[in-house]
Amino acid sequence: MKNHSRISRKHLIPAIIFLAIFAGLTLFLFTYKQDEKQFSHITSQLFADEMVSSTLNMHYTLAYPVNFGIYDYNPVLPIYSAQSSLRGQASAENTAAALRSIRPDKLSPSDSYTRTLLLRSFENALKSGDFLYYEEPLSPSSGMQSQLLILLAEYTFRTKQDVTDYLSLLDQTDEYFTSLLVFEQEKAQAGLLMPASSLDKVKEQCDTIVTEESLREGTHFLQTTFEERISALCQEGGISLEEARQYRAENDRLLKTVLLPAYETLADGLFLLEDPSIPLAGLASKPDGAAYYEYLLISETGSYRPIAEIQELLLAKLQEEYHAIREIAASEPSILERLSSDEYAVFPYTEAEEMLLDLQTRMSGSFPSLPQESSPDEIQTVGELPSVAVKTVSPSLQDYCAPAFYLTAPLDDTDSNVIYINEKNSPGGLELYTTLAHEGYPGHLYQTVYSNRYFMENGENKIRQILWYGGYQEGWAIYVEFIGFDYASQIMKEQDRSLDALCIQLEKHNRSLQLCLYSLLDIMIHYQGASYSQVAKVLQNFGVTQPDSAKAIYTYIAEEPCNYLKYYLGYLEILSLKDEAQRQWGDAYSDYAFHTFFLNCGPSDFVSLRERLEESYPLPDSTSSP
């Protein structure tokens, strides 16, 4: 009997070939787009982890988390600690290593660019591990003791879940401020506590931002804004009248029994930490202050230029602005007198709404139109221009807030925007107009809405939403603020006020010179260790002769390292990028094309932006306005 179980020799070779082909096909299917899949997995996990780790951040990033795959989370206000920073460092190291293993040429151009941004961001962030106690979360001008309440006051109630999340976060403010106090105590032990003068200002804020009297009278802004939001949600049918009543009672209870004691405890703890022997000085006075400043400069501005090169750039711009001012002043001897006249102070527009409308009209020829916004389920679209509410800062926060600020809209809800104006600074006329150019159109509001809608429309990786670049955002705001001055000059010319138009140009160059000077002082104070007396001498050369004024300038810069550079160096980097685009694109260049390129790239560091430009990044579909 023949054994039919054996494969005959003539069939052996084809069988081996088949097995080899099958094995190869299996390997191909396994490795096909492996880099893309790995990158997608890494970024999706990063995004989800970032969102669920801070409900406040998630709320201001996503209006509807479920549409981004986030179905279940616990409302959390993250605890501030050196230990959490160290854990973050370890996680960043692992993520950076995983990103390095991915081959950029195997990714789409968009994902390859995102990988580059992520790697640079992580690599710089890893340097912060050497400076755990150099960060200052309770800065007098921008600390969480004031910023947290603004974010809570503007916490939008779209659903009942938003209300319960909000109340849960409010219930955690005592633990949050306790963690900040512990961090400050650890800073003190490390010899890195803020000076007594700064600490005293923070303590005063804690004593006045939330008071027993305002809560008892029901006039605190966290009571009044809660009432506005809860009533609107009730009218929309999101909650019942009984639920609204219960939520109001819970909000009042938490404000009085959790938030108020949290501020009182923080104030008392900071008072015990005050050390009069610690002088107000820049980072250079600290052991590793200069090294920390180099890290912070990249982190805040997205510019990787050496500090010496940055100084050269600033000095050249300072001279340019100085000569421009002298030239204008020489061209019209009466201009200084006109600047101080009542007639010049009269601006054609007085209301913020009409100023925003004028800005939208004037920018239309040089900036791309906003993409239409699709709802998350792509059922409907909303109008091209989003709505914007201009609100005033609560009197209890006026001393601690910027002159104006824009609260960024979520990725999936860009139709409702808020610009805050601090009336203590009494902005009006030209100042209000250019402020609205900075915060609204073509500034932060326009840039944010454009970016969010463009990213959604083109399916960009959502991880881009958690990458922040101060130089990109604030540099753009200064760039268009100066364009706002030019628009204001046009308005004056249209009204046959040619001298006033020239005055506005003088004011534009003066503001640029001022920001440039303060940026140079930032480097002098924090990197070179300049003292108050040295700074005062520099300021005297620019007409700042009053000691109180010089002291105020020195104090703000010493307490807020890199803040002016975030704005002005970002602006200079944009000008440099613009010059490069003109050189590279030649006759095809237009401001419209450059603005489209810059906005389409989205928030980025300036090294990556320059690389993208130099890689013959294709011009936008249209190189001129439609």
Explain how this protein is built.
- It is a single chain.
- This protein is mainly α.
- The chain has 26 helices and three strands.
- A three-stranded mixed β-sheet has the order 1-3-2, covered by helices on one side.
- Strand 2 and strand 3 form a beta hairpin.
- Helix 2 packs across helix 3.
- The protein is globular and about 65 Å long.
- The N terminus and C terminus are likely disordered.
Indicate the mean pLDDT: 90
Order of helix and strand elements from N to C terminus: HHHHHHHHHHHHHHHHHEEEHHHHHHHHH
- Spans where pLDDT lies below 50 across 5 or more residues: 1-13, 25-30, 375-383, 622-626
Alpha plus pi helix count: 26
Kindly provide the radius of gyration, computed on alpha-carbon positions and rounded to a whole number of angstroms: 28 Å
Structural class: mainly alpha
Spatial order of the strands in the main sheet?
1-3-2
Overall helicity:
55-70%
Approximately what portion of the residues adopt beta-strand conformation?
under 5%
The gross shape turns out to be: globular
User: How would you characterize the largest beta sheet?
Assistant: 3 strands, mixed
In total, how many beta strands?
Answer: 3
